[in-house]
Amino acid sequence: MKLRTLLAVLGVGLALTGFTLVAAPGLASSITLDEAVLVVVGFLGILLGVRVAVGRSRTAYEQVETPDPEASQDLPTPGDEFDELLATAGADRREIETRETVRSRLERAAVATIVRTEGCTESEASRRLETGEWTDDPYARAFFTGSVEGASLFDRIDLRRENQSQYHRWAVHAASEITRRSEAYES
Question: What is the model's pTM?
């Protein structure tokens, strides 16, 4: 409600009150000045209340929209790339370059682990890796030496279980042994 309308309503109300008091002078004598002020203030309060109610009813309802919650991202797990390399290298003998990459990465990890856990030089660690002195696991040793020594006939027959190639199984043994030695040293 605009101020002009409010003032018009107030003026009309006061005019009606004035005409009423002129028409009935006895009514004016029955109301004291304190009561008259109280009636005027009450009337103004009612007018302001009506103004606020009309103003709110004309205002469009606004609501804040919350943003969409963040969605989790799919991030690669550390080691996924190596697992894919190992699966590719183990699945096909013709993946010579991939096999060499896997062997090179495992060799670097093994040498670093031997140096850290046994406190020897890199050349000594490489020698232990080439001779197989670095582990008791015959398959982990065989990954770097190329031959299985110390494994029972039963274990050798079981080499092709789960349709995995010998290369894949030996590489997994080598990686597991490197991890085991590293974790044992850190604990």
Answer: 0.57
